[in-house]
Amino acid sequence: MKPGIPKGTRDFSSTEVAKRNYIFNTIKHSFENFGFQPIETPSFENSSTLMGKYGEEGDRLIFKILNSGDYLKKVDENLLADKDSQKVTSKISEKALRYDLTVPFARYVVQHQNEITFPFKRYQIQPVWRADRPQKGRFREFYQCDADVVGSTSLWQEVEFVQLYDTVFSKLGLKGTTIKINNRKILSGIAEVIGASDKLIDFTVALDKLDKIGKDGVVKEMLEKGISAEAIEKVDPLFNFSGSNQDKLASLEAMLQGSEEGLQGVADLRTVVNNVESLGLDSASLELDVTLARGLNYYTGAIYEVAAPEGVKMGSIGGGGRYDDLTGIFGLKDVSGVGISFGLDRIYLVMEELGLFEAVELPKPKVLFLNFEESESLDKVKAIKTLRQNNIKSEMYPDVASSNNQQKKQWKYATNREIEFVVTTVENGTLVVKNMSTGEQTTCSLDELINKVQ
Amino acid sequence: MKPGIPKGTRDFSSTEVAKRNYIFNTIKHSFENFGFQPIETPSFENSSTLMGKYGEEGDRLIFKILNSGDYLKKVDENLLADKDSQKVTSKISEKALRYDLTVPFARYVVQHQNEITFPFKRYQIQPVWRADRPQKGRFREFYQCDADVVGSTSLWQEVEFVQLYDTVFSKLGLKGTTIKINNRKILSGIAEVIGASDKLIDFTVALDKLDKIGKDGVVKEMLEKGISAEAIEKVDPLFNFSGSNQDKLASLEAMLQGSEEGLQGVADLRTVVNNVESLGLDSASLELDVTLARGLNYYTGAIYEVAAPEGVKMGSIGGGGRYDDLTGIFGLKDVSGVGISFGLDRIYLVMEELGLFEAVELPKPKVLFLNFEESESLDKVKAIKTLRQNNIKSEMYPDVASSNNQQKKQWKYATNREIEFVVTTVENGTLVVKNMSTGEQTTCSLDELINKVQ
User: Fold this and answer.
1) Nearest neighbour of A393 by CB, restricted to B32, B77, B330
2) Looking at B213-336, which runs of residues are DSSP E strands?
3) For residues B186 and A165, what is the distance between their CA atoms, to the nearest angstrom?
4) Residue B407 in marked binding region
5) ipTM above 0.90, yes or no
6) Is B38 within 8 Å of A49 when comparing Cβ atoms?
7) Averaged confidence pLDDT in chain A
8) Structure pTM?
9) Does the distance separating the beta carbons of A117 and B33 come in below 8 Å?
10) Looking at beta carbons, which residues of chain B come within 8 Å of A9?
11) Domain Aminoacyl-transfer RNA synthetases class-II family profile: where (chains A, B) (predicted)?
């Protein structure tokens, strides 16, 4: 039977690793350029650190690690006889795999608060694990790439994250992304104006369908959800919410006059929008999107989401926001955090679709030395040593060919690995080199080969 | 209560991440320079892939992942009542965390054999997990850095690994390492000569104590283990096993005349030693060590181990060898593999001890803009945008200082993060810059600052 891997997990070939590293390195470079510092946390945490932080559904999706040794020994017989899996879990498992990077980060900040200089700009690029039902584009093991700042409530930080998204996507060649922005305070203001904060989710869900079902359809759905006609009337401008970000801000300001919090949200967003406009973006556009409500119960200020360039069918390729009490769950109160995340797997798929990986250097030798004559091998390996010292990836086919068939195998190896230069013989310092893309065969010295390749 | 992490795991600060990445990147660069290709495998494998591959002790040390959902439902009541942890494990856990990179690699090769061009030179740098008792320098989560070749029996490959060790350690500045080499065939030859292959481990263990307990002590121990005086006499040269590698090879050749396999081992080692001598090493030395027997039941040809430079107390910082039937466990017979591994954590400790991290660029901004006047902030952020476009890491302190105390906090931030250049004000294109190491304060244009920093 052919061996396999658990569902929802992946092997990555060297080409895939190279492409993924290209994305990671671009993100990392920009993170550091913007003053963010890397940290790393363990793959598994104490269960008590993770459980209860992601809701009931989240708790279920956390991978638990079985205790080592005779883990059943101390478990109560009756509990086992009941076969209550949930109750037994806490008796036989003390550790669990990381579910995201935010909760471990909050734990890190509290644990190391005396070593950290605040505001603390950290980034973290590590895998997370979720026992989700695997499906296209959703995996049980995947990387998150997060940048967060804790210990600052400055709106400049919110401006900076827009710049950071723009910088990374521009560097990746992913032009024409839309950075959507909203503010939780505006959503709270709308809730105040429509007179029911518990209806806010119904409201935004309905409003989000405007493109598809039109104003009449949206109003009908809102009425069905118990939002009054009078309340809907008050936020009527939202049904015709187009124009520039400035137009939208003016419209929101007029609409939210009754809500202090809502007006603060408008002021905050205006600061961010104005400063981003003054600074300019390289290839992204910033769009105020009042339907944006990701993780509503979590974010308290700015909310971000990034849409792929138009024409590419893909959900959001990034998102984030501000949470005013990030570390409170671990006992450190009133530390505000704001951060964004890059969706590696989706960015990968979009870049593949748009053919943006062509510039990526694949991890293969530039020069292959064939190995037909044992007597030449040492000279070849000496030449390879020099090539490598000049940072030219190179290798000799390790086994000497003792038959025609074996020689063919070596040529096939060169073709399969798409190697550019193949050296057939080395004699008295003269190399016979075949350029595999042109088919041209030349003789040259090692120095000449180095120049040719560089 | 202060939050913590599971025993045997670690948080890494940004300084530690930077130093670790310096080692990883040096290793990676050399791996690719030598023609090795990266692959990555999932953090967890099907238990059937891992169990039974590392012996009974290994099986116990593998971290098992609890099945999701109502995992007890289908487990037999009697089995639970028996509380036989080991038997229950296979019913409630299907997946397990990677224990090393070799078995997943073997699984990968067999699973993807039709996509792979052989010989396949792969490298893999990923964490592994072991439920070992944590102690100084031994962790439950740690990285392995492996390079292996499968599908070639060439001794050139064994030469290349010596070169690879030498290159990596030289590049890291870790000069004076000793690359110890042996060959399983020589050990088999010794077993043949002493007339008992089942005594080989006793024999090498005793011989390894030569430095400490002298010849008489070693002979005494061997006799106690049931090795005959006559047999010991036959391998007498091993008790005086010094001199050059060539001397040792000559001595072994004389001693192993009675064993065909032993003589083959001498011939193999001689080829490797001669070629390494012809090629030269940058900073390491190669030493034939006949007591080297790591993973005796595993390796079938070359055996490697690297010792840190003299004077540094540390176990081996790398090791490896050839295993003739790497993929047989997954049904693909007769594929030889040879590979080496770098011990990241020990290399890190040695480099720290020798002060070799001084050249590592820490992930911190080069330039910090203080934020004392809201009216200057936009100009500062514009300047920062230009600095970043010039690849100069920079940032503005995000919150504006509205008191003397808050200004002091910003200066303290600059000091704590060891920032080189601090910009206090920006007015009409003129920057006031303080060089934090000299204390010198100057006014200059942005272009002049860029030149200064670069």
Assistant:
1) B32
2) 285-288, 302-307, 318-323
3) 60
4) no
5) yes
6) no
7) 94
8) 0.95
9) no
10) 42-44
11) 1-363
